[in-house]
Amino acid sequence: MSVTKVETRQSLLEAARQIVAAKGYAAVGINEVLAAAGVPKGSFYHYFASKDAFGEAMMKSYFDDYLATMDDIIADKGKSSAERLMSYWQRFYDTQAADDCQGGCLVVKLGAEVSDLSEVMRAATKVGTTAIVDRLEQMITDGITDGSVSVGESPRMTAEALYDLWLGASMMAKIHRSAHHLDRAMTVTRQVLHT
């Protein structure tokens, strides 16, 4: 794929992320994404084989960026593992509290929707969320090792439970348009990690 084609493809994915985060996947038409990216109508299939392939690429791109941010947090050796974990959760909080608690997390916005609509998007979301939990587990394990974190369950179970907690809190924040549920998730997270 030429550099220009790669750049155009990425522009389409970035435009779609913003639109889909606001409207959901099924409500967004291909022409709306093309217009937002400044790409001529009718050229969509030069970049993606189908809307399903496009959705899968959008989710993979989202997780690539998300995981790169997590990797940056993990790599910050100027902080203890507990501080890195709480930096991650604070970033999660800030993202989900934005825009009247409408947030920008595609997992929160699309998780249930795409699981019913598209097997390839569901699979991409499963791979991405598993990678998030893997990194959380790593940070918890590092925290146990450096003594900045202690947990009552295994690092894996704790990582899964905390991620589930935050997804649910994000959904409730959207419904109530209030950060109250995110505040509670932060409090519970600190209690679970003993930070």
Automatic annotation (TrEMBL):
Gene3D superfamilies per the UniProt record, alphabetical: Tetracycline Repressor, domain 2 (1.10.357.10)
Domain HTH tetR-type, first and last residues per copy: 6-66
Residues spanning the membrane: none
Name this polypeptide is given: HTH tetR-type domain-containing protein
SUPFAM superfamilies documented for this protein: Homeodomain-like, Tetracyclin repressor-like, C-terminal domain
Portion annotated as DNA-binding: 29-48
UniProt KW keywords: DNA-binding, Transcription, Transcription regulation
One Pfam entry name: TetR_N
Domain of life where this protein originates: Bacteria
A molecular-function term among this protein's GO annotations: DNA binding
